């Protein structure tokens, strides 16, 4: 099959690799229809993921059709159209049994290795899905492939940032970083907050945030706008979706006393200079969220089916699987907001 492989940092190629096979009775094989490039894919692309195994097939956001199932697969059937959770979880460990699948002791992320055990991803014609009965969600015709791709990761993650922050009706919410996850947080926050302020350096991303209903501002202007809208108090909730040390520092500076900074940007820097004196004096809570598609995707799917949420507005580029290297270059240079690959060759 054809697949997007990280040959070495900075070197993404579409290669012919062996077709995946059922390795465990709980596995399914999915023929991928659409697969998206995620900001998290850029960390191994830049060699920033310690222990990443070169040769891994990338991609943890994909929708496709089930073409084979192992003997222990019970709920999922061949022919069904499905979306996977970006991170697999076993459903039986202490974390899973207590409702925390994102911390599953047996977790792994499609298309990643190093941080997690290797599991080849879905930017490919075919992908092996372990624990298929748990990982796959069956889709019906009310939702398109392109919309359903967002249920794998970015929509539950953007929503999860608000949920973990305890966002309530009438809050002032700031989103720092308007990539796909940040824009999903904007979209969800618009249903709750009295004011949503979107911060990004890129004018096109600020325009998208405005189309979703937010007040958009550059990083330089964010402090003045938050002060103006909160009488100088600061924001109730600040979502850090930039995944940069600078973004985190800015988020910590925009939150009110006893407010919450909710981080969904991926961070791997071990030496971030956290100002604990500032955090203590202002009683700031800092939470990190990976996102919980397993628990949140069904309700988010219902909101999409009823027309409340339309995540596809952030898709800027649609291209065939063979053009994936160009897609990575566009996304990495911030000339693309969200790239969706058509994998049905
Ligand atoms: Zn588990």
Hetero groups in this structure are:
zinc ion
What's the architecture of the largest domain in CATH terms? Alpha-Beta Complex
Low-confidence stretches: none
Described by strand count, sense and barrel closure, the largest sheet is: 7 strands, mixed
Q: CATH topology of the largest domain, which one?
A: Quinone Oxidoreductase, Chain A, domain 1
Q: Please write the string of helix (H) and strand (E) elements.
A: EEEHEEEHEEHEHHEHEHEHEHEHEHEHE
CATH superfamily of the largest domain: Medium-chain alcohol dehydrogenases, catalytic domain
Structural class, from helix and strand content? alpha/beta
* First and last CA, distance: 10 Å
CATH C-level label of the largest domain = Alpha Beta
Number of helical elements: 12
Helix content: 25-40%
Q: What integer value in Å does the Rg equal?
A: 20 Å
Any idea what the shape is? Answer: globular
Could you tell me the strand content as a percent range? 15-25%
Overall mean pLDDT stands at 94
Q: How do you describe this structure in short?
A:
The chain is an alpha/beta fold and 345 residues long.
Fold and architecture overview:
This protein has 345 residues and is α/β, with parallel strands linked by helices. The protein has 2 domains: 2-153 and 292-342, Medium-chain alcohol dehydrogenases, catalytic domain (Quinone Oxidoreductase, Chain A, domain 1, Alpha-Beta Complex), CATH 3.90.180.10; 157-288, NAD(P)-binding Rossmann-like Domain (Rossmann fold, 3-Layer(aba) Sandwich), CATH 3.40.50. It is built from 12 helices and 17 strands. It has helices spanning 42-45, 94-97, 132-135, 145-148, 154-164, 180-189, 203-211, 219-230, 245-254, 276-282, 293-305, 324-332, and strands at 2-8, 11-16, 28-36, 61-69, 81-84, 87-88, 108-109, 126-129, 136-138, 172-176, 195-199, 215-217, 235-240, 255-263, 285-288, 317-320, 339-342. The strands form 4 sheets. Strands 3, 4, 5, 8, 9, 16 and 17 form a 7-stranded mixed sheet that branches. The chain has a 6-stranded parallel sheet with strand order 12-11-10-13-14-15, sandwiched between helices. Helix 10 (276-282) links the parallel strand 14 (255-263) and strand 15. Helix 5 crosses helix 6 and helix 5 (154-164) packs across helix 11 (293-305). The longest helix has 13 residues, at 293-305. It is globular. The protein starts with a strand and ends with a strand. The model has no long low-confidence stretch (mean pLDDT 94). The structure holds zinc ion (ZN). Zinc ion (ZN) binds at residues 89-90, 93, 95-96, 104-106.
